[in-house]
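Exercise 7.
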Amino acid sequence: MKRKAGPLSPVKVVLLLCGAEVLSMTGFATYPALLPLFRHEWGLSASEAGLISGVFFAGYMVATPILVGLTDRLDTRRIYLVATLLAALGSVGFAFFATGLYSAMLFQALVGAGLAGTYMPGLRLLTDHFHGTVPSRGVAFYTATFGIGTTVSLLLAGVLEQPGWFWAFFAAGIGPIAAGVLVFVSFPAKTPVAVDAPRGLLFDFRPILNNREAMGYILGYAAHCWELFGLRSWLPAFFAFSIGLSGSSGGVLLGAAALAAWINLLGPAASILGNEAAIHRGRRRIIALTMAGSGLLACLVGFSAPLPLMMVFIITAIYFLLIMGDSAALTAGLVASVPAERRGAAMALHSLLGFGAGFLAPLTFGLVLDLAGGSDRVMSWGLAFAALGFWSLVTVIVHLMRNEKVQSVPDQSISG
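Solution. The predicted structure, written as tokens, is:
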């Protein structure tokens, strides 16, 4: 007689979903890692190169309301599995059929749509596993793992660039399939209790839009994603520019893609430590401080390109750490602010606005590069990075203006 497996422990749930997240993201940074190569091979302008990066997030944004919203009604494992197949199709399709701007946009959009059905639905699997309050540390570890997935994707692309970019994209299609199978066989089938929504609507955003606390975290997340995904999309190209100015060459381990990977590897620690600080020092305070720091440093990063490469790396790493400092706090705050039966819709709107900003940021970065004189000028890079910090500074200013009018109330922190 076959023995029925017992329920997964909370630690195993977090570790399993973090591992699946890394596997599902092998195609996430393949194109940004190879962006300088494609600009040369396909004759792309900075705006066109940024558009290909941005359309990844457009695919995510279009798929999010459907795939994440369905987690309020369907078995999340099945959504996750379908999404991993989309991600694999996008990477493998790019390997075989991408020949220029439009074909690259199509396949990048598919990879982005695949991420839409794995990242937030994976978080939904994690939060649904716990009864009562959701541990913010579990959420922090899961959201922080995004940085590890990005690092693995960058390193994989950097290593496989030598035999040819075909192999980088082909290999990137294997990880999502493994992630989908792992999640599907590890979790029991579970169909959520349907929520009351207007007839004909997949989900209802109105309760979320009327939730002032939730919307504060969602809009803050949009500013965070504008800065984060704009940086991730152009970071390898920025290091390639800086390396070209200095004339140095570090090989595979210190090349442009590798330097970007090492910086992304710092993200999990920054996100987790930022969440710990938010638990003990107040979530809104930590979010405001890290956004102010990242917004101000953004105005300096691009101008550092002519400095010695190690100094450029350190400045950019500090900038990245500040960006990541509020990542888990924003998402954990959202989860705490909505009831369990509305989490799918809340996470869908969270991702929709966040990754919508992720779509516009790389494109805006490329436009600033072109309008400021091209990607061979330090001034252009300085202004493009400053554009990334703009919305974080605006968010902080709005927060300070609101605090002048209304006395702040204590945070309702998630239990750690």
